[in-house]
């Protein structure tokens, strides 16, 4: 009788297509991830992968944008956008708190099951000033307004609400680097192709990534002041002008003065 091998993968049936699974039981060093995340219909693949990575980390591991970009090939924009997606869909919260020392820290909580998403907290002073109509919007709000208004410049750049929410963090990076709103708008709309734009969100994402300017360089320290020369004095001996902090005799007359003494 032929031996049976229950752990061996079943031979794919002729003519079938699609994924075939070989499943082995994990005994240690594994993370349980729900299909609500692995098959999430609205999250990008970058966000899903990042969520799985975060859920696998020990408590206390830094997961700031700089720490994550140091680990992975994705750049700052994609990491920031993926973190924002996870916040939006309830898999992550980031609350900024101001310590008694005045230092601002970020408290990050990862959820293996999505919760009702809330906007990330911002550090507030003890007595926040009242908001008025003249107060400038936050970078994310300004980015969303910019993206929404693109359709007024070219109807082909009509974006869904979901697309606006996904692209807003990428636009926010431009604004945080000191690029004015009008300049960002010009970078996204100048030189548009004459052909129909089938996927405006992907088109804009490409431009936001490839045209992103570098951060402004740190201002160099102020140079040390150049010492001013000593003022001009009139020599008491020969009445020639010479530079000295105090009145007296010039260098040529000093030896004569010493000899006379």
Structure explained in plain terms:
- The chain has 261 residues and is mainly alpha-helical.
- Among the domains are: 35-110, Arc Repressor Mutant, subunit A; 139-210, no CATH class.
- The chain is 36% helix and 8% strand.
- The strands form 2 sheets. It has a two-stranded antiparallel sheet with strand order 1-2.
- Helix 2 crosses helix 4 (76-88), helix 4 (76-88) crosses helix 6 and helix 5 packs across helix 6 (161-176).
- The protein is elongated and about 110 Å long.
Brief rundown of the structure:
The protein is mainly alpha-helical and 261 residues long. Helices cover 36% and strands 8% of the residues. It contains 9 helices and 4 strands.
Q: Characterize the overall form.
A: elongated
Q: How much strand? A: 5-15%
- Report the average pLDDT across residues: 80
Q: What is the rounded distance between the termini?
A: 129 Å
Helix-and-strand structural type: mainly alpha
> What is the H-and-E element order?
HHHHEEHHHHEEH
Number of helices: 9
CATH class category name of the domain at 35-110 = Mainly Alpha
CATH topology of the domain at 35-110: Arc Repressor Mutant, subunit A
Biggest sheet character: 2 strands, antiparallel
C-alpha-based Rg, rounded = 33 Å
């Amino acid at each position: 009788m032929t031996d049976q091998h229950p752990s061996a993968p079943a031979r794919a049936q002729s003519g079938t297509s699609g994924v075939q699974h070989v499943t082995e039981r994990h005994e240690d060093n594994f993370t349980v991830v729900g299909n609500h995340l692995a098959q999430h219909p609205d999250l990008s693949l970058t966000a899903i992968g990042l969520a799985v990575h975060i859920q696998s980390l020990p408590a206390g591991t830094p997961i700031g944008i700089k720490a994550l970009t140091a680990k992975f090939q994705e750049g700052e924009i994609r990491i920031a956008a993926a973190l924002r997606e996870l916040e939006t869909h309830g898999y992550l919260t980031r609350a900024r708190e101001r310590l008694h020392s005045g230092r601002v820290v970020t408290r990050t909580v990862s959820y293996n099951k999505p919760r009702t998403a809330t906007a990330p907290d911002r550090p507030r002073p003890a007595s926040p000033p009242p908001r008025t109509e003249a107060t400038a919007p936050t970078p994310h709000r300004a980015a969303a307004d910019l993206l929404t208004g693109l359709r007024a410049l070219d109807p082909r750049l009509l974006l869904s609400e979901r697309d606006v929410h996904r692209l807003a963090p990428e636009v926010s990076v431009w604004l945080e680097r000191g690029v004015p709103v009008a300049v960002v708008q010009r970078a996204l709309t100048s030189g548009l192709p004459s052909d129909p734009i089938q996927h405006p969100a992907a088109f804009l994402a490409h431009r936001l990534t490839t045209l992103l300017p570098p951060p402004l360089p740190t201002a160099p320290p102020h140079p040390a002041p150049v010492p001013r020369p000593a003022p001009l004095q009139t020599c008491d001996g020969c009445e020639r002008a010479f530079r000295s902090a105090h009145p007296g005799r010039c260098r040529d007359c000093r030896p004569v003065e010493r000899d006379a003494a």
